[in-house]
Amino acid sequence: MKKIKFACNVSLLTLLAVGQWACAWDPYEHDADPVPETLTLTASSADIVLDEEHLTDPVLTFEWTPARQVSDDFLVTYTTKLDVVTNNFGSSTTIETVEDEGIFSRSFTSEQLNNWANERWNLPVNKNFTLAFRVIAEYVGGETYEMPEVRTVEVNVTPIHVDIFAADKMSIDGSSVVGGETEIGKTVENENLYAWYGDLQIGDLQVPVEFDGLNYYLVPADGASDIHDGELIDVKMQETPVSWNIPAAGKYRLLIDMQNKQVRFYSEATDLKPLSVTFHLTGDASNPEVTIPVTGVLYLYGAGTGWGTKEVTFEPSMADPQILVYDAAKHNGTKYKGKMKFALAKGFTDSEGKPLMQSNGKPFDLSHSYCFTCPPKTDTEKQEISLPLGKVSELHGGVSSAVRNSYYDVPSADLLILDLRNMTILARNK
């Protein structure tokens, strides 16, 4: 037992001695001297603005000095790398160049940096970013290893400003919006037009927009909050909201024209109204006069319906109640095609609900009704015209014999759109 104790004591003494020796050793006094590096790297500016007016002119230049000299057995190569600093010189994002011998600078134009920002680095538009530029001097050849020299600098970049006016999603929000933020959609008849109709309270209204993963607001170009009831307002998109003031509670219609960069508010006082048609049956002034509001139900008649009457419900557009849309997808895919006209009614009654009768004792019916169809050849001569698929064509309305006996040959289409305000018709696929 004593022998073991003695061995432990010796071991402890040895460890203490080694520890004292280690504490006394200074590696900086005994290691080899560090390699004297001579590579330096500078940028023409720490902050640049891409210049849309001079796209092909150099906007940023990097310069470097030669790396340290070693024996003639080595060849020094310089490789440069450019990337957005947050990419950490990723293999798919880095712009890499092996420089020719004797080259000690690299320049970039506004066009190059702008294109890479959009297409290679997928940076958000109008967002400043930081570039990192790196030079690597490597030694090739020789019988020993030479440590490369590496230098990196960063440059802040202001991109070319892009006037953004597009949307992946659009909403209305604010204290005036009943139930909080509400998404609004494009109209079927016009992909450049967003429309909404509903109740608003007194308060403020904003139009948030999502585009390309970023949030913006559609705001009045002049910054004013007045809705200018019924009038066009020029708008723009920006990152900070500007609110419109809703002065009174009630029904409102909001139209947002993305093509012309304009919006229009309609209150109940200025709102667009459905078409209402007043006419004498058959167009003869001696026959009863009737007034029919056109709210969506039309009666199709012609060879395309087998000369039978088809009652069809068209949906008034959110943008304008005088734009009627038939979407086959909402009617089990049913598409109407062939020669037809669009009548307002299939029968007529008086104020007491009794049928209006002809002098021959028969009731007036669809054949005596005002209808929409192709233009007649003349005021007294009917005609039949093929409606081309996908082309806006003229729509004619009337009750004369020439109109009532004219027919459009309608092609099979996903959508049938009757614009009664502008008197056009369009059959198209989605």
Q: How are the strands of the biggest sheet laid out side by side?
A: 9-10-11-17-18-15-14-13
| Shape, principal axes of CA atoms | elongated
Tell me how many strands there are. 32
Kindly state the percentage of residues in helix.
under 10%
CATH level 1 class label of the largest domain = Mainly Beta
**Total helix count?**
4
Averaged pLDDT = 92
Main sheet specs: 8 strands, antiparallel, barrel
Distance N to C terminus: 98 Å
Radius of gyration from the CA trace? 39 Å
Q: What would you call the structural class?
A: mainly beta
Our count of domains comes out at 3
How are the SSEs ordered, and which strands pair?
Layout: H1 2-24, H2 27-30, E1 41-43, E2 47-49, E3 58-64, E4 74-84, E5 95-98, E6 105-109, H3 110-120, E7 129-141, E8 149-158, E9 169-172, E10 182-186, E11 193-200, E12 203-205, E13 207-211, E14 214-220, E15 232-238, E16 244-246, E17 250-257, E18 262-266, E19 275-280, E20 289-294, E21 297-301, E22 310-313, E23 315-316, E24 323-327, E25 338-343, E26 371-373, E27 384-386, E28 393-394, E29 396-398, H4 401-404, E30 407-410, E31 415-419, E32 424-428
Parallel strand pairs: 2-8, 27-30
Antiparallel strand pairs: 1-3, 3-6, 4-5, 4-7, 7-8, 9-10, 9-13, 10-11, 11-17, 12-16, 13-14, 14-15, 15-18, 17-18, 19-20, 21-22, 21-25, 23-24, 24-31, 25-26, 25-30, 26-29, 28-32, 31-32
